Amino acid sequence: MTVPLLKIGAVLSTMAMVTNWMSQTLPSLVGLNGTKPGTSEKIVKERDLGTLFPGPEDGWQIYTSAQAPDGKCICTVVAPAQSTCSRDPRSRQLRQLLEKVQNISQSMEVLDLRTFRDLQYVRNTESLMKVLDSRLKVATDSQKTISTRSFQELKDKMNELLPLIPVLEQYKTDTRMIVQLKEEVRNLSGILLVIQEEMGVYDYEELQHRVLVLEARLHACMQKLGCGKLTGVSNPITVRASGSRFGSWMTDSMAPSSDNRVWYMDGYYKGRRVLEYRTLNDFIKGQNFIQHLLPHPWAGTGHVVFNGSLYYNKYQSNVVVKYHFRSRSVVVQRSLSGAGYNNTFPYSWGGFSDIDFMADEGGLWAVYTTIQNAGNIVVSKLDPTTLEVLQTWDTGYPKRSAGESFMICGTLYVTNSHLAGAKIYFAYYTNTSTYEYTDIPFHNQYSHISMLDYNPRERVLYTWNNGHQVLYNVTLFHVIKTSGEL
Ligand SMILES: *[C@@H]1O[C@H](CO)[C@@H](O)[C@H](O)[C@H]1NC(C)=O
Ligand SMILES: *[C@@H]1O[C@H](CO)[C@@H](O)[C@H](O)[C@H]1NC(C)=O
Ligand SMILES: *[C@@H]1O[C@H](CO)[C@@H](O)[C@H](O)[C@H]1NC(C)=O
Ligand SMILES: *[C@@H]1O[C@H](CO)[C@@H](O)[C@H](O)[C@H]1NC(C)=O
Ligand SMILES: *[C@@H]1O[C@H](CO)[C@@H](O)[C@H](O)[C@H]1NC(C)=O
Ligand SMILES: *[C@@H]1O[C@H](CO)[C@@H](O)[C@H](O)[C@H]1NC(C)=O
Ligand SMILES: *[C@@H]1O[C@H](CO)[C@@H](O)[C@H](O)[C@H]1NC(C)=O
């Protein structure tokens, strides 16, 4: 098992190589790394400077100007070269394609970054394995000297390694995909090079189609590689201690990374006041916030801010409300058919937590239960615009025995308690409609979790723990493996 792990370094350096190659070599191959000096010509005019010349947006630029001895103005104008004229449709198309390929190369950089964190985990695991290896050697060499305590240590270390086993298969598939994508990008830029040499001989439509297909495949690949199975939760970081025992707080996972606004909703019933802090730092200091007053009070703590709107459960009903922050208005509300409410089917801590909204890499979800489902957790994918239920899964896990639940990459993870000693106990995979029992510990520092949600943008868990706002990092496991041909 150690051998494939040792090869991971090679994969990442290959990916870095590809990225460099695409971002540096590719543009120069097609001549787009700098502005091309066009054919320059001198134009002599008997007028004042500037007024008559087309702007740079037409591809023309005033280069120099001078006063001739006879008083005339002399301007040197750089006219666009024929082949790069913006009115040449082929050239424009080529530029667009090139931009696409460059965008793809940027995406590959992101991919590289995303896998980096998981690589760290693999490295740690690798050193653990080495320790384990040598200990096992010692153990077999001198069977008498091994104590019960060392055996326990070995067993503990083995337990830490267990998450590795189910992901090793995935590991193979992922690398194959990257190798293939690499070849496709290489092929494509080869074609672009050919075009530059023989403008016009190529079928642009076919080329464009190939770029589109490649782009879609890369996007799918990134989603997949960014996703993974939850194998670990870090130590908690307490961001702030504020508010009552129960509440919720979050950021918008759909917002661009520059938007770090924090939303804060204290209390679990009849609340209407949502505080919006400008940044996480402001939230920590309790400064720079504005207030939104909801037209309908909320129930529970399962709210989520998604793409600029708050989705929450209206008090004493199973109505889902979508409140749009910028327009400060309810844009749509709809009953979640059959969903229990008003403390009929809460999580183990009660608090009107019948309906829990959440967002992951795949979109917006609602977790609740119905009489028909006998109180077992159901998870529904929601259309964020209409609030219609797109698809529903019955997980079979009793909601009242669940502390909280959160969604990562289409998988619902359920804790077995809101109190000290809670662990992530159950996972339901919507992709395969299957479940398994898990044993993922985490430190429940303040012993009463009333909100727990994953944020796919930051890849962290947000929790509200007994009046503390707490974050956890997660380890999502997917590995990239080399098979030696790289
Ligand atoms: C464009 O690429 C060529 C070849 O790699 C290089 O010599 C030149 O300096 C580059 N120009 C700019 C503006 O980067
Ligand atoms: C490339 O990415 C930029 C920024 O993300 C975007 O504005 C542009 O439209 C993209 N170009 C193409 C051809 O997709
Ligand atoms: C790349 O081009 C080669 C030669 O033209 C071809 O055999 C191969 O199938 C192409 N690869 C991909 C992934 O398109
Ligand atoms: C389903 O999702 C889980 C977790 O995201 C992943 O480990 C598993 O490979 C996926 N299964 C299929 C068949 O895609
Ligand atoms: C997010 O909102 C924008 C408009 O505000 C919309 O165009 C886009 O489709 C929304 N995205 C999702 C995933 O709902
Ligand atoms: C909700 O439950 C309370 C008791 O906890 C009850 O008084 C009230 O009538 C219920 N409301 C609805 C709409 O079911
Ligand atoms: C998560 O990991 C990042 C990078 O290692 C670190 O900066 C951050 O403080 C961690 N957050 C938590 C909650 O552990």
From TrEMBL:
Subcellular localization: Secreted; Synapse
Main location: secreted
Source species, domain of life: Eukaryota
GO CC terms, sorted: extracellular space; synapse
Record carries keyword Membrane: no
Alphabetical keyword list: Coiled coil, Disulfide bond, Glycoprotein, Secreted, Signal, Synapse
PROSITE patterns xref list: OLF (PS51132)
Gene Ontology BP terms: signal transduction
Listed InterPro entries: Noelin_dom, Olfac-like_dom, Olfactomedin-like_domain, Quino_amine_DH_bsu
Location of the Olfactomedin-like domain: 226-478
Disulfide bonds: C227-C409
Signal peptide: 1-16
Stated name of the protein: Noelin-2 isoform X1
Organism: Geotrypetes seraphini (Gaboon caecilian)
Lineage: Eukaryota, Metazoa, Chordata, Craniata, Vertebrata
